[in-house]
Amino acid sequence: MRPITLEEMSGVKLMKRTDTKYVTDISTLVKLLTLASHGYYVQEINNSRLAHYNTLYWDFPADHHYYLIHAQKRKPRTKVRTRRYVDSGIAFLEIKRKDNHGKTRKKRVSVPIEGTIMEDSRYAADFLMEQLGITFDQLIPALSNFFTRITLVNYQKTERVTIDLQLRIENHETGINADLSNCVIIELKRDGRTFSPLLAMLRELRIKPSGFSKYVIGSAVTNPSLRKNLLRKRLRKLYKKTHHPDSYLGAYLAAAEHAV
Fold first, then answer.
1. For residue 14, how many C-alpha atoms fall within 13 Å in the half-sphere facing its CB?
2. What pTM value is reported for the model?
């Protein structure tokens, strides 16, 4: 694929953006990238086309409020997370909100990378209080994830595509880790209803729209105590893609099927 720089990417203005997520596996991703190779640029930074991320999610310890609201698809809802852009050596505390109309707004503040991601987050204590009226003492570092991202832009520069893969989960409450490296999360961000070359490719490969929150799904597969009945259908599809029969996810689904 032809490369596109970060500076050139900044010129891709999606004023009336629509976002759609898709979930597939690595073998299908290879087919998709082959189809897209002559119609899309790939973002390249410092001669690398793969960007590495580390995200820490914060939640309330008593009821896991942020998890439950999202798992139940209720609105409005909020996420509190610290994200490290590993290759760039920068990090932000981010407050991500979705309103009653489904519109997502994100505010963030830079934090240093000096110690652990948990320690660095606390430099943004004033920002957290300003945005949500709470302190870090009211929250717990619930979950971390690590993943690699590929970013594509179509030649017409009317859409941007993020492809997240090599996803790993670490649950700080339970100590349970999950390897979801065969799972691929694709997010198509386009300018309104503008024609999308990728959309036709996704349909050709029978990749259907599917909601996927890394925090919600990551929590569900690593914390046995959380309520997850509403996620069972998505977890079953995920399990088929990850192919880890000895995982907690497999045990949970087997127990759920037996109960039915």
1. 19
2. 0.88
Structure tokens at 216: 């919600």
Interval 58-101: pLDDT, tens: 999 999 999 999 988 888 999 999 999 999 899 999 999 888 87
Dihedrals phi, psi of 237, to nearest 5 degrees = -65, -40
Report the first-to-last Cα separation within the chain, whole angstroms.
48
For 53-121, give the secondary structure using H, E and C: EEEEEEECCCCCHHHHHHHCCCCCEEEEEEEEECCCCEEEEEEEEECCCCCEEEEEEEECCCCCHHHHH
**Contacts of residue 184, Cβ cutoff 8 Å, sequence gap at least 6:** 23, 24, 25, 26, 28, 29, 163, 164, 165
Q: At the fourth CATH level, which superfamily is domain 2-259? A: Hypothetical Protein Pfu-838710-001 (2.40.320.10)
